[in-house]
Amino acid sequence: MSEPKVALKMVIDGKERNVTYEELALSNNLAQEALVRVLIEKKLFTPAELMQMMETVKKERYRRFDEK
Asked: What pLDDT does 67 receive?
């Protein structure tokens, strides 16, 4: 099995650490979920509004190339 690809290198307290794409994706997912939970708890939007906006973004970003 091959080594995981390194997404970035960090230096913390003089020690170099490689961060893989998988670790980066998991960290991003964790931060995003925490942010969404805080915003919902503060009642800045509802879960239904989030889902609706996700559908909107999905349609905007992932539309077929032959559509305009």
From this structure: 62
pLDDT of residue 66: 61
Q: How far apart are CA 40 and CA 50, in angstroms?
A: 9
Q: Which two tokens stand for residue 63?
A: 């539309």
Q: Tally the residues of the chain.
A: 68
Q: Is the pLDDT of residue 64 over 90?
A: no
- φ and ψ at 17, to 5 degrees? -135, 130
Q: What pTM was estimated for this model as a whole?
A: 0.71
Asked if residues 9 and 19 have their Cβ atoms less than 8 Å apart, the reply is yes
Amino acid at 41: E
Tokens for 43? 């009642």
Give the chain's end-to-end CA distance (angstroms, integer).
43
Measured CA to CA, the distance from residue 38 to residue 61 in angstroms comes to 26
